[in-house]
Structures are given as structure tokens and as C-alpha cells.
Recover the amino acids of this structure.
């Protein structure tokens, strides 16, 4: 019996650096499978610039916690062996594992090189703001700790297009483009050209680089047995790169690895343009929907809930949309901070989990909370995930005709016993939506699974019910048998 696909981002920015994360993942696999999680996105598993690195300051893609490099053998999360065991544990529970793939940059080179470069404006990367000069950059990556195991490829300045640090001048806030190199024009147009992001910027037009990255990913997929790819910072990488790269990898491995890209823009037009540029070779996180949630939470009762899905990827191209509420980058204190206010999060999660369009991605810190940073868990999130897994099936019909109270029904199907739900959201006063469940439910009593209302709703002879919701909250109405199945084992 098929179930709704549900992903969980199983990490957040502020995890402890104790080396036990992969073991915790393995231990939680049975609980997550019982909850209804079908896919897990794990953090970058390779060696960063230090043991504290979350995984995005990439040093060595081949070092998954196996070699003594950057002052440590293990990564923040553990060892290579423990990572592979975690993947196996998820597989034993029928959960697919997505690896976090970070190809845009390298950091922490062991040797300096003197390179000719020109400084460019951080506000317009096409604008040269000084004369050509010699800069001393950390561009040599020979990985002496690995001693050539898995790959003898040595990175030097010819494999990069620029950097943000000159060891000679030691001036902060500058970006340097190497002489003879150009920013790739097929990237996001923010700052004139957003090819450069951080560290040593990898040159995706260099055939040696492309060959090495293909070799690495095929090694990684075979070595770890992961099932899918989360692609970091795709707006900063030549758009044709992933179109060709993913096509080649899938052909050479004879596996159609699914991929979801992070294109950080709330502009739907840019998301659609990227998908067209890569021939829909991947899904994208629906950043536009995230920002709708963020603005709705900030505006409160001044937000028109009828616009909640407007201008979003999930409304325009649902087959390519991975929906989310928050992630590690939107957390408080992060560079993309846009954390959805606590009161609105149950409403937002009801939207991504209980509607038929898109694949939802639940954030670890929303499910478990983050007491170390005074962040609560999202109330009833476990119930919402279980409701999706077991009961959110069938034809969907919307009730989006009120600026403060909106809702929808899912009319169930024969394959999922007890399926069929009604969902109502309010960002202001309490109220209700009169919605049609269908005459097949006539005489059936529905109950609020989230406990806001004690009185049942009985479906009338015409198949309609008046489903209520409290002030600034969400109610999910289910049949009585479903109530007994919503216990969540953490």
C-alpha cells in the first residue's frame, strides 16, 4: 500500500560537536519509520575546515571521517563507519537517505600560491574596482593526511575562479577574480553575478574539475549506498552544470538518483527559469512558500490567507516542489535568518503535510525542539506527520474564500482505511468553513485530531460539514477510528 512521501531534514545548525550524531541517527530510524518518514536528508558527511564545521566549509570530499586531517579523524557527526551504519539502519526501516552534496567551493587549503587577480565589487561582481595584482591564496589541496587513497587529484589555483582572501594584504571584505578566469554567466543575477559565494570558488568550466567531481560522486554513491542527493547552493553554480552532471551520473550508474536543489530565492520566476535550464533534472525547495509563511506569521491578522499559496513553486509546478517551513539556514542567528514565528508553525506544517501537492520536508529542530537555544518543538507536529502518512489521501477541494479562515478537504480513498480529512486554518478570529466531504460520508462524525474542539461534526445528507477552528490556530478533522492511531512514539 503506497504512502505519502515525507522527508525530514535530520539535523540543525547548532548540534553538539560530540561525534555521536550518526549513532543517534541509527538509533532513531525505527521511530521515524513508525511516524511515517520515508526519506531522510542527512548533513554533509565529509571533512570540513575543523571538527566544529557543520559540513558546508568543505575541505576534502573523500574524507568521511576516516583520516587525520584538520586536527581530527572524525567529523562533527562521527566516523565514516558510523555514517555508513546509519545509512544501513535507515534502509532496514525502509527509509531512503539523501546525501548533502556541496560542490561550489573548497576551504582550508594546505599551501599558498601566488596568483594574478583583479578585485571586484562585492555589490556587482562584474565591476572591477582595482588594477591587476598578485594575491597569495590558499589554493593548493593535496590532502597529505589521505595520502592519495581514493584519488590522487591535487587541486591548485587553476581549478578555481576566485577567492575572498589575500594573505599579502589581509584585507577583509574583498573578492578577487583570477586573471584568465571569468564568472560563469549562467548563475543567479543577484550582485550582477552570483557565481562567487565563499572560499575558493570551484571552476565548473574546467574539464579536469568536472571529471574529478564525477569520479568522486560515483565513488561516494557506491561507498555509502545513499539513495538521493540534496544539492547545495545551485544558484551559484553554472546552470548547465547540474543538467549535464546529473544526466551523466544517472547513465553511468544505471540508477535514476532523485535530487533536490537549494536555489535560495523567493522569486518564483527564478525558480522556474532554473528548472527549465536544467530540463527539470531535479526538484527545488520551495523558498517562495517559505517566505509566504514567514510574512504571514509576521503580519498576523493583517495577512490575507487567500494568498498563502500565491507565487509559490508548489502551486505552479508541484511535481518539482519540496516544501518546507524552516531549515538550518533560516534559524535564528544564521545568514538567511527568516524563522517562521512559533504561533504560525502548526498552520504552516498543516499546509505542507496535509495537502496533495509537493513533497514536504520537516525540520529536525521543529520536530524535536532545541532547548539549548530556547526553541520549542512545534505542537502536534508528530500527529500531523502521522495524519499525512495514514489519512491525507483522495481528491482535494479548497475553501479559500475568506481572508482569515481557509481550509480544504481530502476525501479519502479505498486503499487507506479511515482516510479522509478536513483542515481549517485561522490567522485571526475563530470561525469555520463549510466544506463538502461527499455523500459517501453522510452521517459520519468527524473529530478534531488536534483537540481544539470537543464537539464532533456530523456530515449532512448532501455531504457537507461545518468545520470549525479556534483563534490563530489549525484544526484537522478525522473519523473517530483515526483518533486512536495518532499516538506518537518519540
Amino acid at each position: 500500500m503506497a504512502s505519502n512521501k515525507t522527508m525530514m531534514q535530520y539535523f540543525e545548525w547548532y548540534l553538539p560537536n560530540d561525534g555521536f550524531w550518526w549513532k543517534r541517527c541509527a538509533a532513531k530510524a525505527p521511530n521515524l519509520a513508525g511516524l511515517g518518514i520515508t526519506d531522510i536528508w542527512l548533513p554533509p558527511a565529509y571533512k570540513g575546515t575543523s571538527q566544529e564545521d557543520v559540513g558546508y566549509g568543505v575541505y576534502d570530499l573523500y574524507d568521511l571521517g576516516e583520516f587525520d586531517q584538520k586536527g581530527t579523524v572524525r567529523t562533527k557527526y562521527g566516523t565514516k563507519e558510523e555514517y555508513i551504519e546509519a545509512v544501513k539502519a535507515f534502509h532496514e526501516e525502509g527509509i531512503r537517505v539523501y546525501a548533502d552534496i556541496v560542490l561550489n567551493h573548497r576551504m582550508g587549503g594546505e599551501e599558498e600560491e601566488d596568483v594574478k587577480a583583479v578585485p571586484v565589487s562585492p555589490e556587482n561582481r562584474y565591476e572591477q574596482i582595482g588594477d591587476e595584482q598578485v594575491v597569495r591564496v590558499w589554493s593548493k589541496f593535496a590532502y597529505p593526511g589521505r595520502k592519495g587513497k581514493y584519488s590522487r587529484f591535487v587541486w591548485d589555483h587553476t581549478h578555481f575562479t576566485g577567492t575572498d582572501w589575500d594573505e599579502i594584504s589581509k584585507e577583509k571584505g574583498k573578492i578577487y577574480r583570477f586573471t584568465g578566469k571569468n564568472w560563469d554567466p549562467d548563475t543567479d543575477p543577484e550582485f550582477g553575478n552570483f557565481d562567487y559565494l565563499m572560499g575558493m570558488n570551484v571552476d565548473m568550466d574546467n574539464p579536469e574539475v568536472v571529471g574529478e567531481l564525477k569520479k568522486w560522486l560515483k565513488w561516494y554513491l557506491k561507498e555509502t549506498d545513499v539513495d538521493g542527493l540534496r544539492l547545495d547552493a545551485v544558484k551559484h553554480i553554472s546552470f548547465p552544470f547540474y543538467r549535464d552532471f546529473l544526466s551523466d551520473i544517472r547513465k553511468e550508474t544505471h540508477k535514476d538518483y532523485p535530487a533536490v536543489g537549494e536555489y535560495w530565492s523567493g522569486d518564483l520566476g527564478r525558480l522556474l527559469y532554473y528548472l527549465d535550464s536544467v530540463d527539470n533534472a531535479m526538484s527545488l525547495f520551495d523558498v517562495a512558500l517559505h517566505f509566504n509563511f514567514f510574512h504571514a506569521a509576521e503580519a498576523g491578522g493583517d495577512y490575507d490567507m487567500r494568498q498563502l499559496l500565491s507565487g509559490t513553486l508548489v502551486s505552479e509546478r508541484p511535481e518539482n516542489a519540496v516544501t518546507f517551513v524552516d531549515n538550518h539556514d533560516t534559524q535564528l542567528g544564521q545568514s538567511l535568518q527568516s524563522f517562521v514565528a512559533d504561533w504560525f508553525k502548526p498552520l504552516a506544517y498543516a499546509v505542507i503535510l496535509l495537502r496533495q501537492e509537493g513533497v514536504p520536508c520537516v525540520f529536525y529542530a521543529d520536530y524535536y525542539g532545541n532547548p539549548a537555544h530556547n526553541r520549542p518543538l512545534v505542537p502536534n507536529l508528530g500527529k500531523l506527520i502521522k495524519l499525512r502518512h495514514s489519512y491525507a489521501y483522495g481528491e482535494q477541494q479548497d475553501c479559500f474564500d475568506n481572508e482569515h479562515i481557509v481550509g480544504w478537504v481530502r476525501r479519502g480513498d479505498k486503499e487507506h482505511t479511515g482516510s479522509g480529512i478536513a483542515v481549517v486554518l485561522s490567522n485571526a478570529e475563530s470561525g469555520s468553513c463549510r466544506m463538502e466531504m461527499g455523500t459517501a460520508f453522510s452521517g459520519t462524525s468527524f473529530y478534531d485530531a488536534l483537540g481544539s474542539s470537543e464537539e464532533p461534526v456530523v456530515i449532512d445528507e448532501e455531504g457537507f460539514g461545518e468545520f470549525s477552528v479556534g483563534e490563530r490556530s489549525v484544526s484537522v478533522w478525522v473519523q473517530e477510528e483515526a483518533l486512536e492511531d495518532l499516538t506518537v512514539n518519540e
